[in-house]
Design a protein that fits this description.
Chain lengths: 343, 343
């Protein structure tokens, strides 16, 4: 089933050694990240047993904890020495987890990070409600922290995320979606929480507005690149690496940049193929392979990676105002890591 | 289809005139309630057109606006003279609406207040996401208000509501549920938001803790009574009056106090009837009528109304510390109105 596109063929042992990785970054924030994990475990408790069960399934399953990592790294970059970033990084992860739970209901996904998704095990109802609980819990933790600035950043982000998800729903199955509309969707539904996560690092450290804005820009652009690469990986990764089945987006008729570009670059016959498979969801055996052939022939997967590189450049430059040092270097490496995932 | 149980037969023109109504209360807060309605309309705007469409469908459809009414009345009882209660009453309604949208997804309801429910028109996905948007919007409004006390009350309430909904899901279709467990569910999922709505009236007026607690107790006990009566009405109201189909709860196998009491008071044959219809959902023609016959023969509908009266008494006494006056009188009448709905 899993078709490997040429993107993956570049891998070899030597290249593997040169690949950017997150080891240095994770070592630098290791102590804080453990505290965040403990905070998450402590605060997803509830007398209602299903809540920690279901929340534990999705949270403990791991994932990259990328968003809390961003808060911790940003706080360190800002020389923050308190401990407010621990609870706030947990808030960010709770909000992210709530959106994942609701996303899986919306997408009717059966898999999440290679495991059965919560809705597949406990049903859509429980996923909706436990998502609501985690979202509320995040606002309880923010209220306990007491910063109206943080509350503003994360309540604004949450509203924008929901708007982005609704926008995505409205443009679903529409291969004529413009690149701009698609970027608006991923900016809202993915990048906004990255931006909030990084900005909070500067807020707790009480840094000047210029640094808050720099970190927000870093998070926003990194988030856009991250989502673009995620969309590429849906057509190139094998299921084990991504925890997803290759072609999930295609089967759901999800319109992502590789599809948008293939539609725009295609001839009438090709466009009819996209209308049939993505818009009308009339899919037959071999359609996924044909979709990937069209994407490859028009270079839309590699070009989507190139688009991502653009946002990575902006993210790297946003960090320019911070002095050199090991944490800044690791945050720059993280940018490379994000696009490198596609190879 | 709609079977009218004897509870409704007491109605006559004369009694109708004596019945408590909300007219005085609504007249007292009329100016404020108009402002709340405007605030709701202004703040459910979004560039994503589906959001005001869907939110407008459920919010503009009306309903009783009972929770914002409670905030406005409580603020007036506390002689509050500012305008913070307007935005905060809108927050309470946004949170309520978000839970309704998610509830309808969980319950797979096709009707809400006599109209097609949002999920029936726009699908579950949109209802989940617009619910998330309204929830986020509520926290944006609270953050703009700037009171950490209010943020604490409503984020705590939101978490408890979600816990209550999950608890209800876990006890669903279980006729052996205890009365205590059922009360815990309705206290969490319904009464907690009533209590938050009333308490906020005292908070904005900066009244002493004793008055905050009194109003919280009033809201909590009123909320419990309200939900108990709602559960009775599901077996007695005609669809036009309630905006629901008689027997919805039964068909979904929802365990409410009238069922719990009928199960406990029934013999083995009757208990097997409840296991078959409520637990295994193996329902046949005539089962709803049989369920209502069993409830009537054991007096469980009237006894549920009596249980509600108990909470109404507590709610009335909670207001005792406030000086007499027209708004206190109206809030007391509201308590009578809630139980009177069952007749």
């Amino acid at each position: 089933m899993a078709t490997i596109v040429p993107l993956n063929e570049k891998r070899d042992a030597e290249a593997e050694n040169r690949r950017p990785n997150l080891d240095a970054l994770l070592a630098q924030i290791d102590g804080d990240l453990r505290k965040v994990n403990q905070h998450i475990l402590d605060h997803m408790k509830s007398p209602v047993a299903l809540i920690p069960q279901l929340a534990g399934h999705i949270i403990a399953a791991g994932g990259k904890r990328l968003r809390p990592v961003l808060t911790l790294a940003s706080a360190q970059l800002c020389n923050y020495e308190g401990d407010r970033h621990i609870a706030l990084a947990a808030c960010v992860e709770f909000i992210h987890t709530a959106t994942l739970l609701h996303d899986d209901v919306v997408d009717e996904s059966d898999l999440r990070r290679g495991q059965a998704s919560a809705n597949a095990i406990w049903g859509n109802e429980a996923s909706v409600l436990v998502g609501d609980f985690l979202f509320s819990r995040a606002f309880q933790l923010m209220t306990a922290d007491g910063s109206l600035d943080v509350l503003r950043i994360l309540s604004d982000a949450s509203a924008v995320i929901a708007e982005g998800e609704v926008l995505q729903l409205m443009t679903a199955n529409e291969p004529t979606t413009t690149e701009e509309a698609y970027l608006e969707v991923i900016r809202s539904k993915t990048a906004t929480l990255f931006a909030a996560a990084t900005r909070i690092g500067a807020v707790v450290a009480e840094r000047p507005a210029a640094e808050e804005e720099a970190l927000e820009s870093y998070g926003m652009n990194l988030g856009i690149a991250f989502q673009l690469i995620d969309d590429v990986l849906d057509y190139s990764a094998d299921q084990r690496a991504l925890g997803k089945t290759v072609g999930d987006d295609f089967r759901e008729g999800k319109v992502t940049l590789p599809v948008i570009l293939a539609y725009r670059r295609g001839d009438d016959t090709e466009r009819e193929f996209w209308h049939r498979t993505i818009e009308r969801l009339e899919q037959e055996d071999g359609d996924l392979e044909e979709a990937m052939r069209l994407m490859t022939s028009h270079g839309t997967l590699t070009d989507t990676v190139d688009r991502a590189r653009h946002y990575c450049s902006v993210a790297r430059d946003a960090l320019g105002i911070f002095p050199k040092g090991p944490i800044k270097q690791s945050m720059t490496d993280l940018v490379d890591f994000v696009t490198d995932r596609a190879y």
